[in-house]
Write a structure and sequence with these properties.
By secondary structure, the protein is mainly β. It is 3% helix and 67% strand. The radius of gyration is 21 Å and the shape is elongated.
Length: 198
């Protein structure tokens, strides 16, 4: 992060926003033994912030994200899949209010969903490898965060984060055929996360 002048600043952010690394050992008797999955993502976000005289600032930017995935599911027809790396683009928007004399800061940040069209190679008892295209959308999210001074050298801080996981779904074509329309990964509900600290 750096300041351009008193009103304008910018930030360049690298993160790995989504991921999974699962490996069930064999010989356990568990129905998923031998199954494994890996999902990797990398994102680079460029953000500009404009600070207004009223202690309110607005910010926004572009997010470039890559995803790739592999999975082995022996109990579903000895199924395996490999998804090539795909790059998608989304955006970030937000606003904040600050009152430095009491260390107060409240911000609201929206991260858009990002669509990926992943070239997918699948192998199973049905034959293969079969190559298809799998659409993956990483979920949109909304973050409300705050901090305020409550005593000398003491801050109260916290936040609420909403992620629309109910819209996240990975359903390669061959896997759907094997499981009569099942999803490799999906979630029923959105997720709210709360934080509070001193």
């Amino acid at each position: 992060k750096a300041d351009v002048n008193d009103q304008l600043s910018y930030a360049l952010i690298y993160d790995q926003p989504f991921g999974a690394d699962v490996d069930y050992p064999t010989g356990t008797g568990y129905f998923a033994q031998g199954a494994s999955a890996e999902f990797n993502s990398h994102a680079l976000t460029g953000v500009l912030r404009y600070k207004m005289p009223s202690n309110v600032s607005v910010y926004g930017g572009i997010r470039v994200q890559s995803v790739e995935a592999t999975a082995v599911v022996p109990f579903a027809g000895n199924y395996s899949v490999e998804g090539d790396r795909d790059v998608g683009v989304g955006y970030v928007l937000g606003a904040a209010y600050e009152k430095p004399e009491i260390a107060l800061r409240v911000s609201l940040t929206y991260n858009s969903k990002i669509k990926h069209d992943v070239t997918t190679a699948e192998t199973s008892v049905l034959g293969g490898p079969n190559t298809s295209n799998t659409e993956i959308e990483t979920p949109q999210s909304l973050n409300l965060e705050f901090q305020t001074g409550i005593a000398a050298d003491t801050l109260l801080f916290g936040g609420v984060r909403w992620v629309e996981w109910s819209e996240f779904d990975i359903s390669p074509a061959n896997y759907q055929t094997l499981t009569s329309g099942g999803s490799l990964v999906s979630y029923e509900d959105d997720v709210f996360t709360y934080t509070l600290g001193v």
